[in-house]
Design brief:
- By secondary structure, the chain is mainly α.
- It is about 80% helix and about 0% strand.
- The protein folds into 2 domains: about 40 residues; about 230 residues, MetI-like (MetI-like fold), CATH 1.10.3720.10.
- Helix 4 crosses helix 6 and helix 5 packs across helix 6.
């Protein structure tokens, strides 16, 4: 067998193994989604959106408290985390550059934070916020989600801004525009699609977190909007209901899993569509 024939055979073997691995992964994903959709749709009804949590056996039981709590936690974390991430990424790209030691340290720390288990971040917030305060609270959960979200948005913003051609910056400077106007009206405008994608990915990441909320906001089986007290979340409620021995609570757990999964899946698909649209332009 010649060297060329060996290379062709090796390429075919690798191609078959890669295709088989991808097919197995997709098959498991479709299996999980099909089970989730079948059980989730069966459990969905209007009571879920109307009623709060109730003891097992009550028909008037729902997920209203968990849905509102999840919106509060993720919404406020987004309001805090998005500006921090965008401002941080802008600093790294436009002021720090690739040769700044401080900027490179921030990039390395951000990469580490992105790969850190969320339960570690939950434990950290518990140690510095929950334990000294003496009680779980919604604010502690918001802090944990913000810490998880910021590195994702920061690194995405940094990468997207660096993709903007330097010639655009130079042209704007040549016209006499100050640096802040160049950043706002040229650089960020040119990378806005990528930045928006990073924001969506960051929101999707924190929307499905359970472990850090167990250590911070804990949970509440009734509607509560006081962020200084334990507050319900869809992820923790789903965990509690799905692991309970009661059939009606298990159905609510399936419904919560379906709602949460469809929301996260929708955000990821929207992010992909935005990226595809950007590439076509």
């Amino acid at each position: 067998m010649t060297h060329t024939e060996k290379r062709i055979l090796t390429n075919k073997i690798v191609m078959v193994l890669s295709t088989l691995s991808a097919a197995i992964g997709i098959a498991f994903l479709l299996w999980i989604l099909s089970v989730l959709v079948i059980n989730g749709i069966e459990a969905i009804n209007w009571n879920i959106f109307i009623y709060e949590g109730a003891p097992p056996g009550y028909e008037q039981s729902g997920l209203k408290h968990a849905l509102i709590g999840q919106l509060l936690l993720v919404g406020i974390a987004t309001l805090i985390g998005v500006p921090l991430g965008i401002f941080g990424g802008t600093y790294l790209s436009e002021y720090g550059g690739l040769k700044s030691r401080l900027a490179n340290v921030i990039r390395d720390v951000s990469d580490i934070m992105m790969s850190a288990p969320s339960i570690v971040i939950g434990s950290f917030v518990y140690a510095i916020f929950v334990a000294p305060m003496g009680n779980f609270s919604g604010w502690a959960g918001i802090i944990a989600l913000t810490i998880i979200m910021v590195p994702v948005i920061l690194r995405t913003t940094d990468d997207m801004l660096q993709l903007v051609p330097s010639t655009l910056r130079e042209a704007a400077f040549a016209l006499g525009a100050p640096k802040y106007k160049v950043i706002l009206q040229v650089v960020i405008r040119g990378a806005k699609t990528g930045i928006l994608t990073g924001v969506l990915l960051g929101v999707a990441r924190v929307s499905g977190e359970t472990a850090p909320l167990l250590f911070t906001s804990f949970n509440d089986n009734f509607l509560n909007t006081d962020l200084s007290q334990p507050i319900a979340s869809l992820t923790v409620t789903m965990f509690n209901y799905a692991t309970s021995p009661y059939e009606d609570w298990q159905k609510l757990g399936w419904a919560a899993a379906f709602i949460l999964s469809m929301f996260i899946l929708g955000l990821n698909i929207l992010g992909r569509l935005i990226l595809i649209k950007r590439k076509r332009k």
